[in-house]
Amino acid sequence: MFRKKPQIKPAAPLRSSDRRKLADQIIDDYQLETATPNDATPEQKAGVTTAHTSLRSSLLPDNLQSARFTTTHGPELKKASGTVYIGSHEGEDGRILWFQLEGRMYPSVYTLWRHPDLVPLLHTHEIVIKKLQGGADLMTPGLAGGPPFPSRARKGVVAAIASMDRPSVPVAVGVCAIDVGALGRVQGAKGHAVESMHWAGDELWSYSPSERPGKAPPEEIEGWARVLDGSGLAEETGVLGLDDAEEEEEGGVALDGEDKRPSAEEQADGEHAATGDLHEAETVQERKADTPELTQPEIDTAFRNAFLYGVYHYQQTQPHAPNHGLVYPLSQSFVMSNLTQPFLPAFTPEQSQQLQIKKTSWKNIKKFIKHMDKQEKLVKSKEKDGHETVITDIDFTAPAIREFKPYRLPKKETVAGTALGRGEKATEAIDTGDDAVGQKLQVLSYFKPTAKLQPLFSAGGAAIAKHQQILTPPEVRELVTAYIEREDLVSATNKRLVKLNPTLGNAVFDGTSSLDKEVLAKGSVPRDALIDRVLHAMAPAYAIIRQNTDTTTTTTTNPKPKSGTPPKIHITLETRSGSKTVTKVSGLEAYHINARPLAEELRKVCAGATSVEPLAGAAKKTEREVMEVMVQGPQKEAVVKALERRGVQARWVEVLDKTKKGKGR
């Protein structure tokens, strides 16, 4: 429905009473709350009330805004209008969380990622997901992972759709056109199963008040995975093989071999032959035949080695940074996307299909982290918020890490480099005389106590006075821990709890939020929650420095910390003069990169014109100019490769593709 950009009017804050009323409507419509027994005690009723209030805030946060929108819908492009509800949870960007059409509320994928089991979850193959992301409806033969299907998936019910490759991650929202839960088989069936309303990749997903690009779907969502485990569907959300189908009484594969249903991979190969590209189809089959099937122990070993490589990479590239540039706690998504996945030895698409966490003996990243803790003794981990396991420390002196030997990894080719026949070399073959090439960068995070927190950090007298100006996260933890022990605030019954005293009550928990009121009412708080709250209340600062420099002095390559959060390097793709695309890069100065040598390299690599101009309005008169590099063509990959040569990590880069506005994604 939102394949093309809707017209969204300016958003306005929603009144608290309207927000509560709307949240209660959602809770009632989606049956999210159980009835309170008539014989419930006052304590039980109070607990139910607290849970209800918490559910309201989770569904519709306090900062919720609403805006009217108009768009077109259906093959006849009928006009449709409704309301979008925009909000953000702590530490996240503002996103459209719900949208309303004809009085009915629909969750966005961002809401589904936070609220497992909000709606019934259906599954289909990855190649079908790509069709859904073009605006197509889910047809009945495209259903996978059943029967049986979720019993709640009745006609007219809002449902979510996930890929078989990532069964715990909803990527589309729609309305059931039939009673899916009653289906006994899908082979040979016809007609629509789910009418698509919204998906990850559409204009609703990409909308942000801050104009940030849409958030990519996670690799796994723990809550949805538990829902699948509990319903017995977890094992069914794998690609249905011929042997599995033959065991079903009314399976989707004929036993006589005359009506065999192709697998998802065979369908993908068939797309090449159906379009006349027979040579490509044969090449795909030959490549698959040459790729040996990995055993589970081999996949386990690959993931273990990849994690060791990831830790080794941080240790080698940031030897002087605290914790080698890692900021604890490390979330599950960070461990997967930054410490493991980039270091898997996947040289072909077929190997990438095999090297997936769900095909290991651990099945998910949570159990993998626990294995690294309990069996390998390489990390320390803990449960966070009851549903996520985070790494709180890594033993860089462990023999497995200390004796690790790097292995060959797949080389990322840039589009431009391959097109010019440079293949793997790409930008490595270009010598621009740029002293930033080969540099190793560190982005260090610091925190400065605000005036409100000064009593907490100055209570120690001269012993900690030197730390009052700027602190690293480990230093904050150390000082807060020292304060707790000095004031004898550790609970006698639970060592993880900290008793509140007047200083903590006034400086940290001031009662402005519902969490503050709950903590003040209990009179205690978990130690980790206290430290996280102190960090959140402090003023952030950062420093971007070149490695192998003296961190005790201030130089041009080792500047003093600046207030705020680290800036990003911005890569923007725009359309100019009708259909011509240009790629613009800015924000290089903070990372010690000279714009002109970079432009010269991109000119040679991309075989296109480049220019360097001051970025209008980006710097004050007293500051040096911020330069912007522009290169012809969609050259994002070439730019990223050139930045990697200059020590810039992907997480320090933000890409905005303006060429896709108003088009299907």
Automatic annotation (TrEMBL):
<dbReference type="InterPro" id="IPR036885">
    <property type="entry name" value="SWIB_MDM2_dom_sf"/>
</dbReference>
<feature type="region of interest" description="Disordered">
    <location>
        <begin position="239"/>
        <end position="290"/>
    </location>
</feature>
<dbReference type="InterPro" id="IPR057429">
    <property type="entry name" value="WH_eIF2D"/>
</dbReference>
<feature type="compositionally biased region" description="Basic and acidic residues">
    <location>
        <begin position="257"/>
        <end position="290"/>
    </location>
</feature>
<dbReference type="InterPro" id="IPR048248">
    <property type="entry name" value="PUA_eIF2d-like"/>
</dbReference>
<dbReference type="InterPro" id="IPR039757">
    <property type="entry name" value="EIF2D"/>
</dbReference>
<dbReference type="InterPro" id="IPR039759">
    <property type="entry name" value="eIF2D_SUI1"/>
</dbReference>
<protein>
    <recommendedName>
        <fullName>SUI1 domain-containing protein</fullName>
    </recommendedName>
</protein>
<feature type="region of interest" description="Disordered">
    <location>
        <begin position="548"/>
        <end position="567"/>
    </location>
</feature>
<dbReference type="GO" id="GO:0001731">
    <property type="term" value="P:formation of translation preinitiation complex"/>
</dbReference>
<dbReference type="Pfam" id="PF26291">
    <property type="entry name" value="SWIB_eIF2D"/>
</dbReference>
<dbReference type="InterPro" id="IPR015947">
    <property type="entry name" value="PUA-like_sf"/>
</dbReference>
<dbReference type="InterPro" id="IPR036877">
    <property type="entry name" value="SUI1_dom_sf"/>
</dbReference>
<dbReference type="Pfam" id="PF26292">
    <property type="entry name" value="PUA_elF2D"/>
</dbReference>
<feature type="domain" description="SUI1">
    <location>
        <begin position="569"/>
        <end position="647"/>
    </location>
</feature>
<feature type="region of interest" description="Disordered">
    <location>
        <begin position="1"/>
        <end position="20"/>
    </location>
</feature>
<dbReference type="Pfam" id="PF25304">
    <property type="entry name" value="WHD_eIF2D"/>
</dbReference>
<dbReference type="InterPro" id="IPR041366">
    <property type="entry name" value="Pre-PUA"/>
</dbReference>
<dbReference type="Pfam" id="PF01253">
    <property type="entry name" value="SUI1"/>
</dbReference>
<dbReference type="Pfam" id="PF17832">
    <property type="entry name" value="Pre-PUA"/>
</dbReference>
<dbReference type="GO" id="GO:0003743">
    <property type="term" value="F:translation initiation factor activity"/>
</dbReference>
<dbReference type="InterPro" id="IPR058886">
    <property type="entry name" value="SWIB_eIF2D"/>
</dbReference>
<dbReference type="InterPro" id="IPR001950">
    <property type="entry name" value="SUI1"/>
</dbReference>
